[in-house]
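Regression check, alpha-L-arabinofuranose case 632:
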Amino acid sequence: GAQKIKIPGAKPISKDLFGVFFEDLSYAADGGMYAELIQNRSFEYSASDRKNWNPLTAWEYTTEGYGYGTISVETAKPLHPNNPHYVQLNIDDAGQQGVGITNAGYDGISIIAGQKYDFSIYVRQISANPVDMQVQLRGDKGAVYGTFSFQTQAGPWKKYTGTITATANADSASLTVLARQRSVLAIDEVSLFPHNTFKNEPNGLRADLAQAVANLQPKFLRFPGGCLVHGDGINNIYRWKNTIGPVERRVQQRNIWNYHQSTGLGFYEYFRFCEDIGAKPLPVVAAGVSCQNSGGTWRIGGTGQKGIPLTEMKSYIQDVLDLIEYANGPVTSVWGSKRATAGHPKPFNLQYVGIGNEDKQTNDFRDRFKMIYDAVRAKHPEITIVGTVGPSPAGEDYDLGWKFADQLSVPVVDEHFYEKPEWFLKNNNRYDSYRRPKSKVYIGEYASWGNTLVNALSEAAFMTSLERNGDIVQMASYAPLLANLKHTSWNPNLIYFNNKTLAPTVNYYVQQLFSANQGDVYIPNAISFNQPGARADSTLAASCVQNSKTGDIILKIVNAGPHTATASANLAGLGIATTKATIEVLQGQPSDKNTIDNPKNIVPSHAEISVAQLGSYAVPPYSLSVIRISLK
Ligand code: AHR
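Current build output:
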């Protein structure tokens, strides 16, 4: 067994300290981690998502070889009422090659030679005779790089599936569906997934992006947002029940970040992803109000109505209780049985539920928050509720939020910091004097304004203080997590990507080094800085923790300034018998970044170091050093 540390002043650290926050912002889900390659697969885009968008956005009518006919968008006999639009092809003459539709994907479909792609489509054959169909993966210049053929059958909507193997690489391929005979056909839910999704989950995630998140070893995953959760009007509030069940029956909706949510990545997929990566799920529900920071109408489509009418709160609260039953209830319960039907009879072990996001501390908010809070506590005392204290510590909502949290004894509250690097350095002592009996803290979103090394190091310095106060700070997650380079609505982010590849930022490596080297015991006064003639300046920070499972002692030393510093580790009494340790160092010039063309510009180096050397360790300028000493 591991050796337990008996050092005066040693403090427990929350086991859930470092996690991630996922929001479908900057195409993080649709067009990002959700592996669907077809954009607008069910023809539900509309001008309410974005000006000029319509059910045929990302689609083209394809007539080749002198074929002709008409295409229309219909709603008369849909696949499902939740998925009202579909395309109808009236083909008068299929010509030599067929008539159909072509999808451009999200900025083109990236395909790899030899890889398999899973295709599916719903067709309702309206004309009498079976129709020969061909599906083609087409390269950048229209060359066919893989096909799948099938024949339609008479009757109601029917699903056809097939696998296409790409015969060449292409960065901006497209998918064409052609009918080869004169016919009338209805088409909906056209889908193409890479066969190899993350952990081979059906309706799964893009493997490289999901793996990058998994590699952070997050202890929890907050989802599905931020602002996305409360929306910009009560009709835009995220409703988890709309996002489960067969994808073609889910309710889609406008994304507050000015695009569309297919809800293909829904609550079932979020829970499964959490399980796959060993992260505790932290779903967040709106506190019965939408974003009120600009009167609830701050983007297109806001209704101006600030809260769900009180008469409808009972049913809204029931949705929150049902979420807990969906995650944890027995298969014999109404919602637990839906989880089982989806393929997961075992519970998801939900421990946390977030209520609200950066809400303005109005009576609209307070009344509704309390109603939800009381109901969840009464029915599920085992659930830890995470409340919210406004967008920034500088705003009035912050103090009001804390006052309200105190009144209700909310177990954990969510604080957000988007600040300059200097703020993170200056606030290193922020939690040292927090009143410990108060609510615990979840720093649900934080980032210094930028993706350079100096930004990342300011975050690293701050994170040492979170470890030091890991008895108060229950959880912390950098934000936002993912951004598609062609659709970035918020900067900075932790991981940038395009339709083919990704670039983890320097900030990502800081998160990874802390999370992979998290401890559960904080050891005080183990490291001091010897700055000749001066106090240690605030660009220096350090922590010492133990992972009591392995017994490993872990030192993290940050130098966010231009001069080499000297750190002295006092490790007496920690039972260290070994002479060697491992060291990972992230260092460079302050403005260094990782980019999509140079994604490994700044990555941690790995080496060995002798424990004796730690008595006087020369800390390089602009660096984070993580030293791991195994007691065994
Ligand atoms: O992380 C981006 C946004 O910042 C979140 O949606 C919101 O909670 C915050 O304002």
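Comparison notes: The chain has three domains: 18-34+197-516, 59-194, 521-629. The pocket of alpha-L-arabinofuranose is lined by residues 23, 25, 225-227, 357-358, 391, 445, 479-480, 490 (CB under 6 Å). No diff flagged against the previous build.
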